[in-house]
């Protein structure tokens, strides 16, 4: 059981995970790869659990005013805010639309748009990420200006998806060309949706979900969810009265991600432990387990369940 739990306090960050790691304004980011290989471009990235249950789990930690540069993925990218206050923005230049998320809010970002995010709170912030597919979509697609700016600060991305840092004496191998910038024709494939296009169908607010989680799990992402999408996994929010404290099992992988409070996880005829906010636990198919808050007070937990939907794809706006 311990081998499939990653504690918040044990998370190992990488500060050079992506091409904007030296770019002013983005150079204080910390990236975490929790379950699966993730999309890091750096060999320095530590992977906590390499098993991939059909999706990847990661996180980003940033101090105030630090931002993640504009990029896109080929598969689903879902964030919920664990700590802090965050602004998400999107579009070719990041000015097509934006939304501010508070702690517990969740954002299922549609594919086919460039997106970025920044910590607009007053303290170090943390967002948890769910990336669709076993290979997390094959990497990151960067807006052209991100690659150009990074080169001015010593980082070059190879066509092989790996970073080379001139500050460490590295350079592109002779047989590896630089990652080409997207052409004008390719850029036309990326959408420019407004805030009104995105927020109603792709953002769910924590306190709305908490209200819906009384006496049953709140369906967040899935065919029956508040966000009706099928990206290769379903997401539910559990609170104190959502499920009985009884042993049960799922026929697919489940990931438990506490948001608030402390949760007791027990295995049938086996060990038990307590999960805390920021912890991540992987439960394998068929494992009988029970889950319940272990203390009084506010308690909430995001539960991610693998589905048979193909390739971790999320909905693309028309």
UniProtKB/TrEMBL annotation:
Protein name: Cupin 2 conserved barrel domain-containing protein
Ranges where the AraC-type arabinose-binding/dimerisation domain occurs: 247-297
A single BP term in Gene Ontology: regulation of DNA-templated transcription
Top-level taxonomic group: Bacteria
GO molecular function per UniProt: DNA binding
Keyword DNA-binding: yes
Organism listed in the record: Rubellimicrobium mesophilum DSM 19309
Keyword DNA repair in record: no
Cross-referenced SUPFAM superfamilies: RmlC-like cupins
Keywords: DNA-binding
Residue ranges occupied by any Cupin type-2 domain in the UniProt entry: 64-127
């Amino acid at each position: 059981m311990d081998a499939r739990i990653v504690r918040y306090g044990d998370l190992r960050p990488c500060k050079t995970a992506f091409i904007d790691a030296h770019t002013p304004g983005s150079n204080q980011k910390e990236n975490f790869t929790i379950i699966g290989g993730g999309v890091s471009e750096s060999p320095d990235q530590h992977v906590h659990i390499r098993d991939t249950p059909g999706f990847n789990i990661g996180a980003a930690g940033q101090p105030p005013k630090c931002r993640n540069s504009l990029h896109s993925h080929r598969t689903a990218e879902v964030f919920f805010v664990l700590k802090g206050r965050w602004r998400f923005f999107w579009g070719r230049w990041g000015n097509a639309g934006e939304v501010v998320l508070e702690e517990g809010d969740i954002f299922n970002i549609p594919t086919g748009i460039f997106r970025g995010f920044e910590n607009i709170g007053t303290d170090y912030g943390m967002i948890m990420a769910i990336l669709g597919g076993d290979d997390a979509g094959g990497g990151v697609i960067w807006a052209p200006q991100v690659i150009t700016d990074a080169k001015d600060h010593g980082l070059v991305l190879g066509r092989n998806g790996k970073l080379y840092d001139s500050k460490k004496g590295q350079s592109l191998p002779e047989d590896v060309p630089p990652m080409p910038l997207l052409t004008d024709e390719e850029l036309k494939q990326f959408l420019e949706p407004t805030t009104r296009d995105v927020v109603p169908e792709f953002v769910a607010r924590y306190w709305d979900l908490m209200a819906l989680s009384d006496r049953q799990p709140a369906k967040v992402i899935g065919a029956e969810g508040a966000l009706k999408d099928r990206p290769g996994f379903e997401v539910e929010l559990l609170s104190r009265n959502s499920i009985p404290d009884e042993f049960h099992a799922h026929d697919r992988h489940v990931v438990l991600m506490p948001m608030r409070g402390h949760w007791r996880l027990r295995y049938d005829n086996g060990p038990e432990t307590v999960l805390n906010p920021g912890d991540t636990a992987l439960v394998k198919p068929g494992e009988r387990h029970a889950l319940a808050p272990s203390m009084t007070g506010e308690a909430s937990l995001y539960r991610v369940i693998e589905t048979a939907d193909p390739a971790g794809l999320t909905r693309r706006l028309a």
